[in-house]
């Protein structure tokens, strides 16, 4: 594939979004010393720097996004939500929702993040490029129609999916491999039969009791949500098994016109938020697989958008793994790989495999049995060894 057919969306202002003084995801307060909150994005600029320094960016054409318009944001969000984000940002600091702190630049950064995803999606639909990667912040998948949540202001991928539908895509597959459950994406499309949302996440991590196997969609959308809550400690083997046994057959059964990937890298093995063990090879393999799937099902139309990723030192390598996979290049030389690759749990474990097998036996997209809108199972995690929540 010619490099000019790959689009890279990023904007300097996305790197200026800063949730303010805090530690991890908690703002400064009793018991919390000032350090930094997650999603402060010099780290993301460093990720882009690594993609440039290794020459991988030469395979992409850089695009500068325009901010999402009110009309585009309103495809998913209510007016009051946009007003709260704008007001908190204009005040220079504060929480625009629930653990969604902002600075002066955040409202514009959030519009640029959503705008990048919209323009990437409509661009691949128009055939202006084949595949796109959006290196954006703030992330989006926790943002619900009426509230910002957990670092997410606007739901970038959800807005892009709605914009794509308006632009002629009839059926959209969203795969979300961020380590957290994308509650905002799920809620947006829970009753929409034309958007399949597949989330592969750490069971019970965040939000608590969200992203259960029994959540499979409702009403007309019954069967169009597919949650894969993997036990903490899952690694390369588990994620690849999910791709082969869940994502690929579900995608073929659904037959999308467009694929969007919420491509967070916080399932990486050094991430401070997640407890998974993925490596740059994992993200390279998953990105490659999604591009092959897009070639088979959507005429190659696939857009990847960054979501979470909080390891200062490993996130750039994980973004590089994703970017090389999209570009059809070999997996990058990863000097951190030795710290993760040899760990015993990297191969698919029996208790992880049980989640996959359960979905194979129960989810309507995988069994071929029609969905009835009722829960596929009354259980929480299938393995019975769920994480907290
Ligand atoms: Zn996340």
From TrEMBL:
An annotated GO cellular component: cytoplasm
Domain Histone deacetylase: 50-312
Top-tier EC class: hydrolase
Domain of life according to the entry: Bacteria
Key words of the record: Hydrolase
Its EC number(s): 3.5.1.-
GO MF annotation list: histone deacetylase activity; hydrolase activity
Disordered, as annotated region: 365-389
InterPro entries: HDACs, His_deacetylse_dom, His_deacetylse_dom_sf, Ureohydrolase_dom_sf
BP term (GO), one: epigenetic regulation of gene expression
Membrane-spanning ranges: none
Family: Belongs to the histone deacetylase family.
The name this protein goes by in its record: Histone deacetylase
Species assigned in the record: Streptomyces fradiae ATCC 10745 = DSM 40063
